[in-house]
Design goal:
seven-stranded antiparallel beta sheet, 155 residues, 3 helices, Alpha-D-Glucose-1,6-Bisphosphate, Chain A, domain 4, 7 strands
């Protein structure tokens, strides 16, 4: 199983950062390899559609931990092909460290080559930067507050 770890510090309170990650259905808005996450049966089971190195995969995952403002963890069911956790560490009232660890089992030659070239690592690092930009440019209401992107703010 390949392991990818990355972390970033964001200028947002831990509660807001955790709340954003806990809405798993919204992961595709900043995670490039995730196409879809949707709830299935029960409150802890989700169906994932991901694209890794151009290969589309679907699997169900069980949320194994959801500790508010601390961590979220999951593992695929049926076959162990994907697992992950996100840890949230408050660094002050308006600053949070986000640490991601994911494991996945590359199957095809293309997936194995991408892992060997650390394309998965670079993708997760890029995704965290996109998450940082999104949450730091959001006022907590879900509306982008950069001038020109919010109809209530004149450019």
């Amino acid at each position: 199983m390949e392991k990818v770890t990355a972390e970033i510090e964001v200028d947002a309170p831990v509660r807001r950062v955790y709340d954003q990650w806990s809405r798993l259905e919204e992961l595709p808005s900043f995670m490039s390899m995730v196409e879809e996450v949707r709830p299935t049966e029960g409150h802890d089971l989700t169906h994932w559609v991901v694209r890794v190195a151009g290969v589309r995969r679907e699997f169900d995952a069980r949320t194994t931990e959801m500790v508010p403002d601390e961590r979220i963890s999951w593992v695929s069911v049926a076959e162990e092909m994907h697992s992950g956790s996100v840890r949230f560490t408050p660094l002050g009232p308006d600053r949070t460290r986000v640490a991601v660890e994911m494991g996945w089992a590359p199957e095809s030659f293309i997936e194995k080559a991408g892992a060997a070239l650390h394309l998965d690592q670079r993708a997760v690092e890029s995704d965290l930067k996109r998450f940082k930009e999104n949450i730091e440019n959001d006022d907590g209401t879900g509306r982008d507050t950069i001038a020109g992107n919010d109809p209530d703010i004149a450019p």
